[in-house]
């Protein structure tokens, strides 16, 4: 078979498989508001007055925390906007998400930082 026909056949069969995947039953998923349109992520104008590490805002996440079509089973989750310093030594803020699993030992903390190299706040993992 000609290579371009093989590629076309592979693409067509993959596309058909993707289109035919059923949605997960019973889940009412909504598209979350991107950080660029969410007032929670707005850096306060008086940010320089806050000490590094100061908590500026706190909330429960507005959408379920999940992976794919599965919602994570959590005891609780929180989003925290806190004061930090950027690469030019200027005051700014960033958000972290705290996930507390069921039956958690609250005397222990696991910290996981995702590498991020993006100029858009909408690319932020939290």
Structural overview:
With 126 residues, this protein is of the alpha+beta class. The chain has one domain (26-123). It has 1 helix and 5 strands; from the N terminus they run H-E-E-E-E-E. It has one helix at residues 3-19; strands at residues 55-59, 66-67, 70-71, 76-85, 91-100. The strands form 2 sheets. Strands 1-4-5 form a 3-stranded antiparallel β-sheet, with no helix packed on it. The chain has a two-stranded antiparallel ribbon with strand order 2-3. A hairpin with a 5-residue loop joins strand 4 and strand 5. The chain is globular. 2% of the residues are buried.
Distance between the termini: 48 Å
- Structural class of the helices, strands and pairings? alpha+beta
Q: Let me know the number of strands.
A: 5
Task: Please provide the ordered H/E string of secondary-structure elements.
Answer: HEEEEE
Number of domains: 1
Give the low-pLDDT segments.
4-23
Tell me roughly what share of residues is in helical segments.
10-25%
| Rg over C-alpha atoms, rounded to the nearest angstrom | 21 Å
Helix count?
1
Strand content: 15-25%
Query: Describe the biggest sheet?
Result: 3 strands, antiparallel
Strand order across the largest sheet: 1-4-5
Shape descriptor reads: globular
Mean pLDDT: 81
Tag the structure with descriptive keywords:
AB_hydrolase_fold; single chain; two-stranded antiparallel sheet; globular; alpha+beta; signal; 23% strand; 126 residues; 1 helix; hydrolase; Lipase_secreted
Q: Would you summarize the structure shown here?
A:
The protein is α+β, with helices and mostly antiparallel strands and 126 residues long. It is 13% helix and 23% strand. Strand 4 (76-85) and strand 5 (91-100) form a beta hairpin.
């Amino acid at each position: 078979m000609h290579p371009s026909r093989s590629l076309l056949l592979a693409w067509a069969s993959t596309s058909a498989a993707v289109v035919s995947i059923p949605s997960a039953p019973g889940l009412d998923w909504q598209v979350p508001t991107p950080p660029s349109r969410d007032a929670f992520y707005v850096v306060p104008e008086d940010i320089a007055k806050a000490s590094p590490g100061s908590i500026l805002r706190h909330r429960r996440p507005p959408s379920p925390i999940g992976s794919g079509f599965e919602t994570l089973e959590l005891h609780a989750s929180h989003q925290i906007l806190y004061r930090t310093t950027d690469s030019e030594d200027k005051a700014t803020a960033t958000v972290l998400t705290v996930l507390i699993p069921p039956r958690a030992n609250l005397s222990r903390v696991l910290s996981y930082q995702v590498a991020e190299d993006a100029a858009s706040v909408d690319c932020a993992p939290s």
